[in-house]
Amino acid sequence: MPDVKTYDQAAIERLSAQMEGKEPPEILHWAVQEFQPGLTLACSFGGPTGMVILDMIMKIDPTVEVFYLDTDFLFPETYHLRDVCEAKYGFKTIGYQSLLTPSAQAQQHGEALWLSNPDQCCELRKVEPNHRALAGKTAWLAGMRRDQSKTRGDIGIVEWDTKFNLVKVNPLAAWDEKQVWAYVIANNVPYNELHDRGYPSIGCTNCTKPVNPGDDPRSGRWAGLDKEECGIQEGSITILEHEGKTEAK
Q1: Which of 42, 110, 123, 161 has the smallest number of Cβ neighbours within 10 A?
Q2: What is the pTM of this model?
Q3: Residue 230 falls in the annotated catalytic set
């Protein structure tokens, strides 16, 4: 198991500032040099951002571990994309599941927990498995972008993740949707077929709906509920300071 370094606030701010203005492949080259072995990529096989990072990292260091969270409620198209990518890039991804089967969850917490308590459902099926996925890792690569939602508008390229207690790197933080899709097309990157059917943001079958053209891309996630994030991305300390205090998200 690799040694896990800790970084103070000043180091995170310095590293993130150094990465600003660099292209994603440069950021990934740095991340490999800084954190491998022990660097891991969280790829949902849902959004195009993760697919771009996967394509880039496979060209830089195909030994970087790739994992996904198998919530037991993923779309068939998501599993299909996983299989396509494994064949294309020649790697084997690792799926982490909840400690509770869907039936056990229903017995303990009631049917359709994603409706009665969606935060708890995400905690059981995504956040807790993500803890196991990151145990002992040196850093993780995530597909967060500043243009995705108001909750992600000030993310750093390099952050300290207080929830999982390690460095998180967002190599495409400064890219927008057009840049992502331009890369997908130019490099023939596989993507989830649901994007062609009105699903710009893809999660679990129970909590993902198609959206109308021009609507907020994430409006189909947890539609009708006061919820915007699954909880995985809520432990990062930003590099921005307001009134002398660092904000934690």
Answers
A1: 110
A2: 0.85
A3: yes
